[in-house]
Specification:
single chain; 430 residues; 10-stranded mixed sheet; 15 helices; rod-shaped
């Protein structure tokens, strides 16, 4: 009986292993825990943010490789050429959707457009006032260049009526401070050291756009924001008045084939970095997928709609993602569990009862042998059956629900003992 039970159990176990092995062949393997991100110039905010991503993600055993560039347009080219997996791109950058297969993960922070000009004892409020001026709009390939070109074009400012230069941020700042140029366009986070330096320089003014809201209506990726008087430095009262600014956002963009698992892990990891209140950002405003020019990936949309899965709330991410990948095993598991559960109860009943019924072979053999024995042999059998009784009580352990069958066995044993005693007494009387 025991051997039969072991054979059945072993065959069932082997069958389950085979079914699971076949099913696992259809499960997508885990993604590679490594990617390459294009940032921007080594002194820019994109690069600083990429370094923070690297620190956060490498704590979770994800290797992050950083590639520097001239900015957003260069980053799009790197994505197109498949030299990077992810990149920072200024929201609103023009690109050929047929030529570059990319998706957004999120907008991460505001990037205001700062227009600084020489302080010549008068204020500028309209872009058209820059006509005939010497203007730096950033290097080709940068987000500053792209947005400044759009804004200047709207006011018909070009190289025919003005002088436009493509200096880097640092070079353009130095040219402005020396008086070699009249104005500079910069798209940068307010934490930039260049922005702080120019804001606090009394010889430099910051453009306050009276028609900021009009630009935000024309370009869906732009928003009108206000830099309030004294925000930068209350003691020095910088700025000295409220300033109307335009801002875009920094978008985190990936190639179409970027891993869904890494998408969720990146968004989960950077959330705490970007959701804090800042100079222009409200608490929990970022990251988001609002007003992004490059459509969000499906996985990013799911993440922002539903948040962390219940598995991600319980387990570390890589455990949760692997458990989620194994959900395909639920179907064969349920298929196996139903017959196993149905067959498990009879199998359990049989295994418990087999502990009792196995003694009946010996008991029946003893009973049949009594007919031909003499008095001495009967006494020997009596001793033998008493030993059997002790052995049964010692070895037969069954649940309380099966004690009825156990006591039936003991009762039958007692009947044989009684029959044996009767025969011995009868033989004595002869």
């Amino acid at each position: 009986m025991k051997n039969k039970f072991l054979i059945v159990s072993l065959l069932t176990f082997v069958f389950i292993i085979v079914v699971f092995y076949i099913t696992i062949q259809f499960i997508q393997p885990p993604s590679k825990k490594e990617f390459v991100i294009a940032s921007g110039s080594i002194n820019g905010q994109y690069h600083k943010t990429a370094l923070m991503y690297k620190e956060i993600l490498e704590k979770q055993k994800v290797k992050v490789n950083i590639v520097t560039s001239n900015g957003s347009i260069d980053n799009l080219k790197l994505l197109k050429d498949k030299k990077v997996d992810m990149a920072f791109v200024q929201n609103g950058i023009d690109y050929d959707q047929k030529d570059i297969q990319i998706r957004s993960l999120a907008s991460t922070f505001y990037e205001p457009l700062w227009i600084f000009y020489k302080n010549e004892k008068y204020s500028m409020n309209y872009i058209v006032e820059l006509t005939s001026k010497k203007i730096s709009i950033g290097k080709e390939g940068s987000g500053s260049y792209d947005l400044a070109s759009k804004i200047l074009s709207d006011s018909n400012i070009d190289n025919e009526n003005s002088k436009i230069f493509n200096y880097s941020t640092e070079e353009g700042k130095n040219k402005l401070l020396k008086g070699d140029i009249d104005a500079i366009f910069l798209v940068s986070a307010p934490s930039s050291s260049v922005i702080k330096e120019l804001l606090e320089n009394p010889n430099i003014n910051l453009f306050s756009l009276k028609r900021a809201k009009a630009y935000s209506r024309k370009y869906s990726f732009l928003e009108s924001i206000k830099l309030y008087e004294g925000t930068i430095n209350l003691y020095k009262n910088v700025p000295s008045e409220d300033i109307n600014l335009l801002t875009t956002t920094a978008s985190l963009v990936v190639r179409d084939d970027f891993s869904e698992e890494l998408t969720r892990l990146v968004l989960k990891s950077i959330k705490e970095l970007h959701n804090k209140k800042n100079l222009f950002e409200a608490e929990n405003q970022f990251p988001n997928i609002d007003n992004i020019a490059i459509p969000a990936s499906e996985e990013a949309q799911r993440y922002f709609t539903y948040g962390d899965t219940w598995l991600e709330k319980i387990f570390p991410y890589w455990i949760a993602s692997n458990l989620d990948r194994l959900k395909i095993l639920i179907i064969p598991l349920l298929t196996l569990l139903i017959p196993l559960i149905k067959g498990g109860f009879p199998l359990y009943t049989w295994s418990v009862r087999s502990k009792i019924y196995r003694w009946y072979d010996e008991l029946q053999a003893l009973d049949l042998s009594l007919e031909t024995l003499n008095n001495e042999d009967l006494k020997a059998k009596l001793l033998e059956i008493e030993e059997l009784k002790k052995e049964i009580k010692k070895e037969t352990k069954v649940p309380l629900s099966y004690m009825g069958e156990y006591y039936d066995l003991i009762m039958h044993l007692e009947l044989v003992i009684s029959k044996l005693n009767t025969k011995i007494n009868n033989l004595k009387g002869i």
